[in-house]
Every structure is written in structure tokens, then in C-alpha cells.
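[User] Could I get a sequence and C-alpha cells?

[Assistant]
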Amino acid sequence: MKLESRKILGLPDLEVHATAVRIPVHTGHSESIYIETEREATLEGVLEALRSAPGVTFSGDANDFPTPLETAGDPGVFVGRVRVSGNAIEYWCVSDNLLKGAATNAVQIAETLVAAKV
């Protein structure tokens, strides 16, 4: 997780603290994500960013959270249980790992680059 995050973001020195917990579910990946930003964040700003992010479905309630069962069969990324304190952001993220993964991400990144004519 550390190396992949650094590679995807192009930040070789990105500080990543990852813990993997294996729980048997039919389909899906779930992650509890903690981010520290350089500037203070607001809950309203984070929720707006999530709502406008392509491919991201926000549960609609900062206290609600998606489950692997709900996301099975959908190629999107689902986010909920959002918390903001100063420059710290925490949220719960779930996706169907059979539909959303490295190959799908690569295609979506390529489509974005082609659309931007980079």
C-alpha cells in the first residue's frame, strides 16, 4: 500500500502509515483513511470535494458509511463516515475490488489525460 500510493501520486517521499486487516467478504475492499493536509480543512469543504470528485459516491451523510455488500457490482468508489479536525481528515472508503482496481484506474487516468490533451 505504501509503494503503490507513492507511485500513483508521484510522491516518492510521501509518508504513509498503512495497516492491513483481512476480513472475509465476498467482494470488496474497505479502507479507513486518515489524511493530514498542509492547511486546515472544513467538513463542508471536504464534503463538497467528495461530492464533485468523478467516480466517487458520497453517502450523503457524514455519519453514514458504505459497506462492501452495497458496493458489489458497481465500479465506483464509495465514501462515508467523514470526520475533519483542523488539518486532519478521516473517512471510510469502499469499492468492489473486482471492478475498481489498478487496470480500471489506469484506463481512467489515460482517459483523463487524453481528454486534457496532455
The chain has a mean pLDDT of 85.
